[in-house]
User: Fold this.
Amino acid sequence: IMLQWNDGSWEHRAIWGEDLIAWGTPNSPSRLFIGSLPRPGQWVRLSVPAADVNLKAGQAINGVALTQYGGRVYWDAVGRVTNPPPWPANESLADWIDEQIEATGASLPGPLKKIIESPRDGWNEEQLRQLQHHFIEHVFSGSRGVFEPLQTRRTESTKLRDELKKSIPTTLVYREAKEPKQAYVLNRGLYDQPGDPVERAVPAALPPLPEGLDNDRMALARWLFSGQHPLAARVAVNRFWQQVFGTGLVESSEDFGAQGTFPTHPDLLDYLSVDFVEHDWDVKWLMKQMLMSATYRQQSRTTPDLQQADPDNRWFTRGRRYRLDAEVLRDQALTISGLLVPTIGGPSVKPPQPDGLWFAVGYSGSNTVRFKKDEGHDKVHRRSMYTFWKRTAPPPQMSLLDAPSREVCQVRRERTNTPLQALMLMNDPQYVEAARYFAQRVMDEADDDIGERIQWLFWHGLGRRAAENELAVFSEAVAKWSDEFTANPESAGKLIAIGEIPAADRFDAVELASWTMAANLLMNMDEFLTKN
Assistant:
């Protein structure tokens, strides 16, 4: 006997008894031998797994054929036998837990996997609540519509956060070691000849570390600012004094040790240090004391007698006089011209500088091998503290004016005066642009009279009115530049085109170029570049 199924083809057959019906290929789903004939005289159910005759789940059956070779057969109902579908695991918490126990929690997070692997009768309420929360958030079909959009947003946010973290430059940070390395006295300073072991401690002549603190760097930091000794306060006060007066009470502000210079006014340094600590390290209080002192308010003028008695002004017989730092000079030029962007915070910026400086020292794969200046007023006219700094090739407008390279910490700057500095201050694009913008202010805010404009320049640039001889020199210079630019208007156009912000159309190019030169002259006067 043979059972046949049609899904568009009758090549699905099962045989019981002798192989007498020659349809299909023997020993294949089209002619599959199942076994001997059923026992005669009683009802027998014949069943065949669908997959054995090449019928797949979900496949449509068009017909069934009941076939026999000779004899008599009584055929009854024909159908399919299936198991009742189980309750979906994503609908029942209990079924889902059973499924996870069977799979030993392979797809679950670590903490939940440990719960599933432990004996079920030992679970507490907190463990059951964790499983329930995971089921509701990640499995239960009734809540998937609520949680899926939230999970998608969380995944996207996490991806953005991770990308942001990867884009942020990293640096080394200090962390205390679990087991500090032993230090030794080195025989004659040789590292391969350690002598007696040395433990961490503060100088015996000073107060000990505060009680209850570990013997580590944090304890040292708290000790430095405990107020029980003047070490940190003396160094801080000396540096603020150096900032105000140009030279510290201890000239070697980077070295207070045996190799450093002795303070010129030790009692004053002690007094200011103690007062600084007693006023809770209030910098504003300290600066006010210095700036309102009679010493600071002295004039910078000197006499032959003072010059002979105190040539370096170490006894502060007159007001200090020194060239301003590089950053201050640039910010000052941008400020009086009206170009400075006062925004606080934000990323570093790249003001213009000569091309090729980075290429000589940059690695070929580095992102700083080629310098590309920023564009836009909001970037190139920010304070100098925001200028991007490549330590192997610092900005030339800074290094020319003795700014340190930042390759090492430098507390005290040397000051030089060179022709190259003057050349840069007169020709650097940002200083020329500042002069042109300063000239625009003159033409907008002062009267048309040349003398009044020169007085305006002096008042806003130097804080005083011009003397008669200065007025004559500037008047003659402006007239000369006006004649030159009138004869060569193309050069006037080139001059006022320098910079990030174009010149306003309301200004005559020749007149603006002439006053740009006048502003540039004033901004290169010694009085403008020097603290008096």
